[in-house]
Write a structure and sequence with these properties.
Layout (H helix, E strand, L loop, with lengths): L1 E5 H11 L4 E8 L10 E6 L24 E7 L4 E3 L7 E5 L1 H15 L7 H7 L2 E6 L10 H4 L10 E6 L2 E5 L6 H5 L5 E3 L30 H6 L5 H5 L6 E7 L7 E7 L20 H20 L9 H5 L6 H16 L1
Parallel strand pairs: 2-6, 6-7, 7-8
Antiparallel strand pairs: 1-9, 1-10, 2-3, 4-5, 4-12, 8-9, 11-12
């Protein structure tokens, strides 16, 4: 069961929820895009329903609450270590189906990828519930249907679909019933979230990527085209790489803080090691590492694909490199090897 609300009614629901929850949602930032007079849709903490962008695809993923670009993990002195404080209020994160699927990938890496769970990720993850934004149609560069992330069968507190000026919500978490039923003009109804069933962009992923693909010359194109800016990594909802930085407050280095900072396999210096060694010097080699991790290596370990087909990497790339095209090129090259 669900509810049909006016925009005013939904605004009242959000106002009620803000009494107990912090809410992070896509917000349109006027003039904040890459070019003059271009907007950007990014995730931010909201104060009212009017701020939530429900129609456009966000340029950035909702992962920044779970994995901030820069996060202080703990502070240290000569004699003690103190974990950084974290706002303990529960959090609602609005996201589309592919975004909710991406959180499963983050959980896999940070919580289920070894004998110990990442405590700094877990303390954030334990705070959140997800709100599903329905997709009435596919967006540019999306290929979520090919990746199987176009549908969410559960896993959300409630859904939100803006249809002809009204909000349709499937409320699956009963703890939110009161907020919806008390909203002015709320009508009970059978509501099914909208899901995309077809994308203009389609990909085919080989069941097994032959080893010959590693040495294939198809990566040479990206040595020439890619400028290793790392934008594709930073907008990707499933990229999880980071580095550590110690910030010292004293000259002797015994007082300071340790930060976890997002990193990028596509950026120069990521594979630098002690002694001046560097792996994957060429941009094509970095592209190979990223692509095969997303469509092959992760699946070998966990049984499903890492990429969710949101297409944000294609949207953001200043060199117009298409990740979906690369996947199809890998598939074509794999067939040639097999034949």
């Amino acid at each position: 069961m669900g509810y049909v609300l006016t925009k005013a009614g939904f605004a009242e629901v959000v106002r009620t929820l803000l009494e107990d929850y912090r809410i992070f949602a896509p917000v349109r930032k006027t003039g904040a895009g890459r070019f003059t007079d271009v907007d950007a849709v990014i995730y931010d903490e909201i104060r009212s329903a009017d701020e939530i962008e429900l129609e456009a695809k966000s340029d950035y993923a909702p992962k920044e609450f779970l994995t901030p670009l820069s996060e202080t993990l703990f502070y240290f002195t000569e004699n003690e270590v103190k974990e950084s404080d974290l706002d303990s209020r529960p959090v609602l994160i609005f996201g589309r189906s592919c975004d909710l699927h991406s959180i499963k990938r983050l959980d896999q890496i940070y919580l289920e990828n070894g004998p110990a769970r990442d405590p700094f990720y877990k303390r954030r993850r334990d705070l959140i519930k997800c709100v599903l934004i329905g997709c009435g149609s596919s967006y540019d560069n999306c290929f979520c249907v090919s990746m199987g992330s176009n549908r969410c069968d559960g896993g959300y507190a409630f859904s939100v679909d803006l249809i002809e000026g009204k909000i349709y919500s499937d409320v699956s978490d009963k703890s939110f019933e009161q907020a919806f039923s008390a909203a002015p003009g709320a009508e009970r109804a059978d509501v099914t979230p909208r899901f995309v069933t077809e994308n203009e962009v389609r990909v085919e992923i080989p069941e097994e990527v032959p080893r010959e693909i590693i040495k294939s010359d198809l990566w040479d194109e990206y040595t020439a085209r890619c400028i290793n800016c790392g934008r594709c990594n930073f907008v990707c909802p499933t990229c999880t790489c980071y580095t550590m930085q110690d910030v010292f407050y004293s000259d002797n280095g015994r007082v300071g803080e340790r930060r976890r900072v997002s990193a990028s396999c596509m950026v120069d210096g990521y594979t630098d090691v002690a002694g001046g060694g560097q792996y994957r010097r060429k941009n094509g080699e970095r592209m190979r590492f990223k692509v095969l991790h997303k469509i092959s290596d992760f699946k070998k370990r966990f049984g499903y694909q890492m990429c969710v087909g949101c297409g944000r990497c294609d949207d953001i790339c200043p060199e117009y490199i298409s990740f979906s095209n690369i996947i199809n090129k890998v598939n074509a090259a794999s067939r040639e090897v097999e034949s």
